[in-house]
Amino acid sequence: MPTQAHAFELELNSGRLRAHRYGPEGGKLTLCVHGLSANSRSYDFLGPELAAHGRSVVAIDLRGRGFSAVSGLGSYGWRNHALDVLQAATLLGAEHFEYVGHSMGAFIGLELARQACARLERVVLIDAIGIPEPASLLPIIAAVQRLGSVHATADAYVSAVQRLGIITPWSPVWETHYRYDLMAVDGGVRPRTDRAAVFEDMAYGATQVPRAFWPNLTMPSLLVRAGIPLGAGFIVSAGDREDYLRRVPRSEAVDIDANHYGVMTHPMTAAAIRRFLP
User: Fold this and answer.
1) Cβ atoms < 10 Å from Cβ of 13
2) pLDDT, tens digit, for every residue of 49-94?
3) Distance between CA 244 and CA 249 in Å, rounded?
4) How far, in Å, CA of 146 to CA of 240, rounded?
5) What confidence tens digit (pLDDT) does each residue in 206-243 have?
6) Which of 12, 18, 100, 155 is buried most deeply by CB count within 10 Å?
7) Domain boundaries, the chain
8) What whole-number distance in Å separates Cα of residue 73 and Cα of residue 70?
9) Does domain 6-276 match CATH 3.20.20.10?
10) What is the pLDDT, as a whole number, of residue 53?
11) CA-CA distance, 4 to 22, in Å (whole number)?
12) Angle at Cα 53 formed by Cα 216 and Cα 8, nearest 5°?
């Protein structure tokens, strides 16, 4: 039987944070962080795969996402998300921990390495290390546009997401992920994830130079790169992949035959991360 996601709450300085644990409480902590407009349930495939080896795998809803608190305008950005991750690890009893981040979660991992590299044992960066190719951003923007909109039913909402055609292959993980985020409102349902929070993080990311964070990756790091483009471009260019391996001393990389979303549910992603984490 797959390991089930156990939901619990953490009370941070910034507000309440929803988390899901896969595996035992007492194992080595692996903290997992989702992408820009996603939530913790995007780890419903990878979480059980990693927890099967005795780890305590905890995925969080970032502030403003899913069931976590909306902290208000001016309170987002990689720096503040990283502070939340560090406090979450402390509350979970871990001075040192492993980190897995997808998309914006990977950029938060770079910020974590800048803030507290001594606390990070190993870092997995899933399909984000530098400035994405411009053509790859159009599908991301299309996905973000769903936020704030009201749909008649949960089925109608999920169908609208599927019609975007960017999540391939569609799977029960993504079905659960998108339904988890819904709340009932007048006229139907809408996502809980706060549109303003997501747009603030998009604006913040546009001001950052991810390569400038690479020297802080003094711990072993693994880049999991999606080998199929998103739309007409790659989130991680071939040039960034090679530069990362050349410039980051304890780095590794693997290409997965999936796009930016499909990489989260690909068996080879799980296998690569299991090999990397001792």
Assistant:
1) 8
2) 999 989 999 999 999 999 999 998 999 999 999 999 999 999 999 9
3) 9
4) 30
5) 999 999 999 999 999 999 999 999 999 999 999 999 99
6) 100
7) 6-276
8) 9
9) no
10) 84
11) 6
12) 75
Tokens 């069931």 sit on residue: 67
CA distance 101 to 85: 11
What residue type is assigned to position 199 of the chain? F
pLDDT in tens, 82-122: 999 999 999 999 999 999 999 999 999 999 999 999 999 99
Mean confidence (pLDDT) of the chain = 96
d(CA 217, CA 117) in angstroms, rounded, equals 7
Q: Residue 1 — very low, low, confident or very high, per pLDDT cuts 50/70/90? A: very low
Measured CA to CA, the distance from residue 155 to residue 59 in angstroms comes to 25
Show Cβ contacts of residue 145 under 8 Å, excluding neighbours closer than 6 positions: none
SS3 track for the chain: CCCCCEEEEEEECCEEEEEEEECCCCCCEEEEECCCCCCHHHHCCHHHHHHCCCCEEEEECCCCCCCCCCCCCCCCCHHHHHHHHHHHHHHCCCCCEEEEEECHHHHHHHHHHHHHHHHEEEEEEECCCCCCCHHHHHHHHHHHCCCCCCECCHHHHHHHHHHCCCCCCCCHHHHHHHHHCEEEECCEEEECCCHHHHHHHHHHHHCCCHHHHHHHCCCCEEEEEECCCECCECCCCHHHHHHHHHHCCCEEEEEECCCCCHHHHCHHHHHHHHHHCC
CA distances (Å), 7 to each of 17, 257, 264, in order? 11, 31, 20
CB 17 within 8 A of CB 68: yes
